Fold this protein.
Amino acid sequence: MTNPNQIIRQFSTDDANLLQFSQTIHTVVQTNLTDFTDFDPEITAAFLIAFLGQITDTQNFSSDNQLIDVLAQNTMDVEDKMKECRDAFQLSKYYIEQTFPNKPGAWNEFGYNDYDTSRRSHEKMIQFMFDLHETCTKFEPLLIAKGFTAPKIANIFTLATELKAINSTQELSKGQRSHAANDRVLLLNTTWETCRRLCNAGKTIYYNNYGQYQYFLLPWGGDGGTPPPPSNEYNGTIVSGATLNIVIPNLLPTTVLTISNTGDFPLRFCSSDMAGLPCPSGLDLNSGDSLAVTLSNLALPGIVPQFLNISNTIAPLGTPDGEYSITVI
């Protein structure tokens, strides 16, 4: 299932290969411009200037790997702040229980009964920390009397505010990357369409000239007028609390995949050297998110990834099944 907002590539090679080939075609056509103008009066010097502009604009646009690196760093920043929030709560429990010994009902006012579900969700953890600070402020004199100092209580609010800001930055990066990835593919598709037109013209012009004809054959196979082969797509569901290994033949660390969350609840995508290993970190996709990545982009540092895993562990246990779609580009 293709995300309705996703722009589909119209070519069947990687970005660098397409741009290099386009540059070669531009040079060859420029050298033989008279032949092309005689064949098609629209292929002029101005046409080639515009074509070179398409190539340059695409080369200057941020690569998808750069955008993924930014998002990955933002994701790590959020996870680091989530750990600080979890640690702050664990610290507060000592003083809460000293202040209200053997009173689970009072402990729940501090969020004890909400913590397990909140600790796995960025949005829930933000609200949890704000609520924890509000309750600690309510009982501040009693807590301070047991050693829970005012700066420690204030730090709960600081962490909640910082987590909210970092999470917003991450969500903004996801949106920017989705838009930027689509914008880049639009530029690449435009460059490809011009390149394909010139290749079709060149093969017609030099049909009986073997040497010249070779310039206009795609180095990655196929014919200039033939659409790229269909992508391999893997769709499925994943129950709450589970982790799945998605079995994809010939999967390499450099394989380009489009990962999509087609369900209603967040999922986490990661890669590992073990099949079905739960994802301690990775890329969290909300409902409707779709990103182009490689296995290497999803792996922890130092890991040579071999498997693509999906965890449905972010949403609370008992939620309906998650849904995903994986496309091998």
